[in-house]
């Protein structure tokens, strides 16, 4: 099975302007496909921007099968590339901080609702999800989804490892002064759980926040395969099933677990 070239779109888009962000996504999908990518991953809340006024979020939120999902399905199909995008999801009276994976044929493959909400802004704006492991099959890989703060909880990522996730997609809005998460924590999570992690951040000032960029694709052998800087850019990296299989064979973490000792964790 050939490697899956993955494009990480490090961008904050335009705050509150869904149409402009869809246009940017279309252009990025075209560039990514030309670069041989089979998957494009955006940042947290890419569709609308992150630092929105609380009063504006319900009006910008859309259902998982709403008009933007249809538009992104058309983008994916036109460029023959899978797309993972962050957005505010409306579900009944609730609004979730969500990420949806659209397949290269334009079909929705998986929708994830952020389970761990960071800070007062998110806790006031969103309802947390309650499904920790959401997966889909893409190009022969088992792909999982988390959002930002979720990856900082080791139990969360280990649950994905035990469920067979090969590539964990983590759209994020990681801000100053927590850049150590991108630089150090994410590569460690990839190594200790024997998976690839695509961690895709926003960048620059937005409202009261300053996003630090540093998006990366970390691999199970503790190597960061690609790393963005602090500005807007798109970087490419390969998810190699052969490297993944060899690393899992050589690394005994998951085989040497003793779950009977960990009952106090739950």
Structure commentary:
With 266 residues, the chain is of the alpha/beta class. 28% of the residues lie in helices and 29% in strands. The protein has a six-stranded mixed beta sheet with strand order 5-4-3-2-1-14. It has a six-stranded mixed beta sheet with strand order 6-7-8-9-12-13, covered by helices on one side. Helix 1 runs parallel beside helix 3. The longest helix has 17 residues. The chain is globular. The mean pLDDT is 97.
Q: Helix tally?
A: 7
C-alpha Rg (nearest Å):
17 Å
What's the total number of strands?
14
Termini separation: 38 Å
Strand order of the largest sheet: 5-4-3-2-1-14
- The coarse overall form would be globular
Summarize the structure.
The protein is of the alpha/beta class. 28% of the residues lie in helices and 29% in strands.
Task: Using brief descriptors, characterize the structure shown.
7 helices, 28% helix, single chain, 6-stranded mixed sheet, 266 residues, alpha/beta
How is this fold's topology laid out?
Elements: E1 4-10, H1 18-34, E2 39-41, H2 57-60, H3 67-79, E3 82-91, E4 94-102, E5 108-113, H4 119-125, E6 135-138, E7 141-145, H5 154-162, E8 167-171, H6 180-193, E9 196-200, E10 203-206, E11 209-212, E12 216-218, E13 224-227, E14 233-239, H7 241-250
Parallel strand pairs: 1-2, 2-3, 7-8, 8-9
Antiparallel strand pairs: 1-14, 3-4, 4-5, 6-7, 9-12, 10-11, 12-13
Helix pairs in contact: 1-3
